[in-house]
């Protein structure tokens, strides 16, 4: 393996990708469809965190909110306003769906920052499914709401007639690249950050370099906290943008 | 031999990450200079800023992915 | 590089050899069904919790708060209007009182002035009376004095005339003296 520079460099061993290994929580068998794995554990913790914040945190229903309730209301207001502003007022019906995506991603990202944890959103399996869900939803909604008029999204009526077929091809390609970039952006960002931290941690084995390494890890960790939130935000806002295209396909 | 070539390719692909960094810096810098000229309009455009950054960054992430694929999967 | 030729049968998957990953774990398709299954479960559970419990509750709380705020604002507006009213009433009362006080002051002033005028007039009259009396007395005294002077002059004149050898009758002397006194 490329990263295993064993032996030659004073026994430095890098395994930056080992943190992404999926393994069964109990026993040592193969990973089947229903096997309870570390994926299950960390997704369950994500659910617990979401329920803690959004359900238990607001259980008092107080008019003057406590800490947890304020945060819950803040998240609610944040996503609600985003849906309303970006996707339009008629997209409010999709608010619970978008809220689900946002809460899952943001909590999975933050839980992934706990040392020794497993980052579910750094796996393409997860993000591709999330992106495909958005893609399929947007496409279906587009055709249901606008019928064949949804194809007008690809026919740029403001461009010169001669250019339109070429633009249509480009638009169609970009439309189908959307789920790819949508999913790879999220997983790639998280994977890159975690792998970089792991590589820095590998350098800490050399005593002289270790202070620098620790500093670098701290700095990267701070950046990762930022990235965790921004990527969840970006995923959500892009979902809203795609949804706007589906609801109002005219350019 | 093939492995070594793949490593070189991975290094070349990683240049793309730096290019994406330039792109993201461009977006953010232009936003900032615009925002300082007209601060009242800036607040409403943060969403656009993040969308722009996301698009610029996505392509950098693609090159990063290519590097990873060359390192680990080829 | 990441070949499947390595005998990873003893491990959980062909993607893991001796406890470390072969290639990218993200691209190990042995694990995809498992992840996708659990992701769907997770999303359904979160969606259920959010759409059934959390979001309606937060929406209700926010609406209630909006209502409370609106009510409180209306009440505050009411109270403010009342305060303005009270202030107006106070100002009016103050102005009234002031006007009344002014009235009383004016009235009192007029009364005092009238009294003063009265007293002054009385005093003037008294003074005038006293002065007249005094003048009368002076005139009387003067008249008396004149009489006395006349008498003395008559006597003196008679004596003088008799001394000079003449014989003066009383009537001509009196007439002469009267003429002299007038002159």
From TrEMBL, chain B:
Look up keyword Electron transport and say if it applies: no
Q: What is this protein called?
A: ATP synthase subunit c
Where is it located? Answer: Cell membrane; Membrane
UniProt record similarity statement: Belongs to the ATPase C chain family.
The Swiss-Prot or TrEMBL record annotates one GO molecular function as: proton-transporting ATP synthase activity, rotational mechanism
* Residues the UniProt record annotates as site (Reversibly protonated during proton transport): 57
Entry's PANTHER family?
A: ATP SYNTHASE LIPID-BINDING PROTEIN, MITOCHONDRIAL, ATPASE PROTEIN 9
Q: Which residues cross the membrane?
A: 6-28, 49-73
Q: Supply the Pfam families for this chain.
A: ATP-synt_C
The family database entries (InterPro entries) matched by this protein are listed as: ATP_synth_F0_csu (IPR000454), ATP_synth_F0_csu_sf (IPR038662), ATPase_proteolipid_c-like_dom (IPR002379), F/V-ATP_Csub_sf (IPR035921)
Q: Which domain of life is it from?
A: Bacteria
The major lineage groups are:
Bacteria, Pseudomonadati, Pseudomonadota, Alphaproteobacteria, Rhodobacterales
What range(s) does the V-ATPase proteolipid subunit C-like domain occupy?
8-70
Give yes or no: UniProt keyword Cell membrane: yes
| Keywords of this entry | ATP synthesis, Cell membrane, CF(0), Hydrogen ion transport, Ion transport, Lipid-binding, Membrane, Transmembrane, Transmembrane helix, Transport
Q: Per its database record, what is this protein's job?
A: Key component of the F(0) channel; it plays a direct role in translocation across the membrane. A homomeric c-ring of between 10-14 subunits forms the central stalk rotor element with the F(1) delta and epsilon subunits.
Q: How does it sit in the membrane?
A: Multi-pass membrane protein
Q: What broad class describes the main subcellular location of this protein?
A: membrane
What's a single GO CC term here?
proton-transporting ATP synthase complex
């Amino acid at each position: 393996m490329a990263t295993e520079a064993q032996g030659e460099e004073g026994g430095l061993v890098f395994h930056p990708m080992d943190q992404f290994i999926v393994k069964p929580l109990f026993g040592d068998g193969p990973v089947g469809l229903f096997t309870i794995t570390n994926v299950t554990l960390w997704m369950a913790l994500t659910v617990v965190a979401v329920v803690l914040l959004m359900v238990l945190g607001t259980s008092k229903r107080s008019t003057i909110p406590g800490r947890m309730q304020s945060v819950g209301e803040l998240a609610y207001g944040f996503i609600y306003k985003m849906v309303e502003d970006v996707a339009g007022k008629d997209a409010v019906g999709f608010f619970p769906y978008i809220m689900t995506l946002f809460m899952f991603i943001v909590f999975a990202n933050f839980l992934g920052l706990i040392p020794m944890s497993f980052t579910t959103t750094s796996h393409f399996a997860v993000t591709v499914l999330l992106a495909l869900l958005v893609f399929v939803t947007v496409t279906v909604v587009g055709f249901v709401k606008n019928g064949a008029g949804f194809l007008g999204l690809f026919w740029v009526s403001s461009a010169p007639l001669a250019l339109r077929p070429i633009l249509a091809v480009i638009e169609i390609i970009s439309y189908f690249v959307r789920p790819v970039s949508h999913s790879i952006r999220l997983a790639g960002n998280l994977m890159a950050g975690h792998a970089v931290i792991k590589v820095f941690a590998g350098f800490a084995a050399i005593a002289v370099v270790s202070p620098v390494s620790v500093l670098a890890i701290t700095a990267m960790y701070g950046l990762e906290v930022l990235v965790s939130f921004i990527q969840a935000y970006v995923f959500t806002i892009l979902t809203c943008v795609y949804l706007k295209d589906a609801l109002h396909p005219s350019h | 031999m093939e492995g070594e070539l793949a490593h070189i390719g991975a290094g070349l692909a990683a240049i793309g990450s730096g290019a994406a960094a330039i792109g993201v810096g461009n977006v953010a810098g232009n936003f900032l200079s615009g925002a300082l000229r007209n601060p009242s309009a800036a607040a409403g455009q943060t969403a656009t800023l993040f969308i722009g950054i996301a698009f610029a960054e996505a392509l950098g992430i693609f090159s990063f992915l290519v590097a990873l694929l060359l390192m680990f999967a080829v | 590089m990441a070949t499947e030729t390595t005998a990873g049968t003893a491990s959980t998957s062909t993607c893991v050899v001796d406890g470390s990953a072969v290639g990218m774990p993200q691209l190990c398709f042995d694990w995809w069904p498992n992840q996708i299954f659990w992701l769907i479960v997770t999303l359904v559970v979160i969606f259920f919790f959010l759409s059934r419990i959390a979001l309606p509750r937060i929406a209700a709380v926010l609406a209630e708060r909006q209502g409370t705020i609106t009510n409180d604002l209306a009440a505050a507006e009411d109270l403010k209007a009342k305060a303005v009213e009270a202030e107006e009433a106070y100002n009016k009362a103050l102005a009234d009182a002031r006007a009344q006080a002014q009235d009383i002051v004016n009235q009192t002033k007029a009364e005092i002035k009238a009294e003063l005028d009265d007293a002054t007039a009385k005093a003037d009259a008294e003074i005038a009376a006293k002065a007249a009396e005094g003048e009368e007395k002076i005139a009387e005294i003067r008249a008396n004095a004149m009489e006395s002077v006349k008498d003395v002059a008559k006597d003196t004149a008679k004596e003088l005339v008799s001394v000079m050898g003449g014989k003066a009758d009383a009537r001509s002397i009196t007439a002469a003296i009267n003429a002299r006194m007038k002159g």
